[in-house]
Amino acid sequence: MKNIFPENAPFKIDTEIFARVASVNNLEILAKSRRVQIGVGSATGALENSARSGVGQFTLVDKDVVERSNVATQGYLVPDIGRPKVVVMAERLRAINPAVAVQAIYGSFHDLTDDDIKRLAFDPFVDSATSALAPGASQTVLVGATDDFFCQARVNSLALHFGIPSICCQHYAEGLASEITFTHPVTVRACHRCILSSRYEAYLNHGFKNPVGSAGSPISSSGKINALCTDIEMAILHHGTEQPRWGDLLARIGDRNLVQIRCHPDAEKLLGLNNFSQAFSAANSDQIFFGETIWRRQIPEHPNTGYSRPCPDCGGTGNLTQRIGAFADTRIINS
Ligand SMILES: [Zn+2]
Questions:
Q1: What is the CATH number of the domain that holds 289?
Q2: In angstroms, what is the span from residue 37 Cα to ligand 1's centroid?
Q3: CB contact at 8 A, 140 and 33
Q4: Ligand 1 midpoint to CA 87 (Å)
Q5: Where are the beta strands (DSSP E) in the chain?
Q6: How would you classify the pairing of strands 125-126 and 133-134?
Q7: Does 17 reside within a domain?
Q8: Which of 24, 36, 31 minimizes the C-alpha distance to 86?
């Protein structure tokens, strides 16, 4: 392996593996960045994309083993069946880039305390399989990729509590459409809860249970959302740099932190949505069919913006950094 950085640098970059993306991605920044992913199911593609982009540090949390049915929908292979998903994906990431450092947590997200998450998200560690050193993360992005409302809700609280960017990915029923919400402590004003307040209301006050798993979601729907998740991750990790492709992208996205993808032409009819029709109402409708992405501006939930109360998580002030350190235990959802 050639190291394009000095011998004493605490990270290595394989210049041959990354030869064709070195002009696009800032490999030094990415090598020092950490992706903490809660849920290693349909988002395996996004994880692999991260490693292929040059992200150097990973923390994976998932309590499941690979089932036979996961082969068709989640990027696992038959020889992986029966093994913990986090262990399989850790090996996959190391196989993509032998310089990465991965910590694989096989267990329940809710068994981890906030102090545990803090350590896993920021502290130096040594990869137990390769002895690769992950110095303390210069940037951490927290990714929620589960089909469990309470896990996704905790990702929002953790991102606010630690003041870090976060990305949450969800499929709608049968992958007919997909959704990404993301936060950044500086560039957006609304947290995930502001964006999804009706979903919080349904779960917390009306006993709603999620009927949407990955059943019926084809791999093509996962491919679309995983690719877009990678774009957003690159925009977050390069934010404020001079990198031509990504450096100003997050600022250009601005407060459009609800992103929806239409994965089938009948998605609106079958899911009861009208967002795509609204977005394209003035366009040449004959050319609009499916595969589109819309970026929707979001406002913080607060009486000043027309809501009945401030968002219980971010406070609705529009400044997400005001909630840094404010959560006693992110496993308890604020009421
Ligand atoms: Zn909020």
A1: 3.40.50.720
A2: 21
A3: yes
A4: 34
A5: 33-38, 57-62, 101-106, 125-126, 133-134, 139-144, 166-171, 177-183, 258-262, 293-296
A6: antiparallel
A7: no
A8: 36
What is the total count of domains within the chain?
A: 1
pLDDT (tens digit per residue) in 92-114: 999 999 999 999 999 999 999 99
Query: Residues 179-191: what's their mean pLDDT?
Result: 98
For residue 207, report the distance from its CA to the centre of ligand 1, in Å: 21
Amino acid at 25: N
CA 300–ligand 1 middle distance (angstroms)? 6
The C-alpha atoms of residue 201 and residue 119 are separated, in whole angstroms, by 32
Is 183 a domain residue? yes
Q: Domain for residue 164, yes or no?
A: yes
Give residue 215's identity as a one-letter amino acid code. Answer: A
Global confidence as pTM? 0.96
List, in order, residues 6 or more apart from 8 with CB less than 8 Å away: none
Does pLDDT of 6 surpass 70? no
Give 196 Cα–ligand 1 centroid separation in angstroms.
9
Would the pLDDT of 210 be above 80?
A: no
